[in-house]
Amino acid sequence: xxxxxxxxxxxxxxxxxxxxxxxxxxxxxxxxxxxxxxxxxxxxxxxxxxxxxxxxxxxxxxxxxxxxxxxxxxxxxxxxxxxxxxxxxxxxxxxxxxxxxxxxxxxxxxxxxxxxxxxxx
Length: 121
What we know:
Elements: E1 7-9, H1 15-24, E2 28-36, E3 39-45, E4 52-57, E5 70-74, H2 77-86, E6 95-97, E7 100-106, E8 112-117
Parallel strand pairs: 1-4, 5-8
Antiparallel strand pairs: 2-3, 3-4, 6-7, 7-8
């Protein structure tokens, strides 16, 4: 049996502001559909990822900014940080841990992300 994580709902207060942020952070806008006054579905995918995020109205009842621990894996934490900062994303300095090198950032609502460079194997 296979189970593939393909979509994670990210709660936000302002869909357009969040969409613009994630596009600045390099995510590709796959879909943006207004279904009704109560339902708007926006799907964005990080570069190279098989898993996407969903933003919108009526997508989740989670509190905006309540998501912690979203993580992408990158080849080079320093290059990723520089790339994010150049695109206007407030990214932390690179932090070194035994389990990898990390850059942390958050969307405008405070949903928190980590970009991890895996340690050499």
